[in-house]
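Notes from the pairing session

We agreed to fold both candidates in a single pass and log them together. This is the raw record for the first candidate, unedited. Please don't reformat it; downstream parsing expects exactly this layout.

Candidate A
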Amino acid sequence: MIAVLDTETNWYDELMSVGIVTAEEEENRFTPHDTIYRIISPAYTAGGMFSSSLILTGECDGIIAERDDAMYDIRRFLSAEKVSGIYAYNARFDHRLLPELGDYDWYDILRIAAYRQFNPMITDAYECFKTGRMKNGYGVEDIYRMLSGEKTYSETHNAQRDSVDELNIMNMLGHPSSVYRIAMIQ
């Protein structure tokens, strides 16, 4: 079982929400299993660029909790789900925000998605460094659009929804979790 995680921050670069989807790996596919979503109080009250996306009624309601309580809930959830590693797009950013989860192995989806060697949709039309990494256009929206063909896709900036979209990127890339070992952050 793996976990794909996304966060959102307020104007002061403080954690204001965490969304996680767990998934079971079967033959290079990750099947969603369960989710958890926490909105962090009081940080969310400071506002942020994506504050309007925090709560989406009926679709991914979040529980508002103080950080210690939210982290307790998240750690219990990850333990109950028997999560072996945390995956995130631009994982260094999320890892920095969540020292409470520092004992997990973290893997960066970006490090796979933005490289020609791992993303068959990166053709010669894309400018890349000699290493095979794209020079630009490798954000979540760009990569999701590239892989899915959905030209109108927009990231919601709701941590729960975005974690599911990042899991979808992993599925569209079609690599087993073992490939992500090279994308482990230290």
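Candidate B (folded immediately after A)
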Amino acid sequence: MGSIFRMNIVVQDLFHFIKELPTSVPIYAAHLNGENLYETKITVPCVLVVGNESQGMSNELTAKVTQKLKIPMVGEAESFNVSIATAIILGEFSRQLR
């Protein structure tokens, strides 16, 4: 409880934020055409961008992404709800960085 108070939260225009990042900071994105999340080495600091569930990210934002990540799917499912996908990706980030 209260973890939100122990995290760095940035509230500003996303494109301005990305533009101000050092080029050494990778920008990861959940994307259907990405590399397998579990076969990708995550580095920090980093940024994770997730898009709208029905339309994904804009082309303008996708062009700023350093590496697209995909969660491998089993069965007939095509995608996850954005909150579930974010939780899975952050869980893998956390596992790798421990």
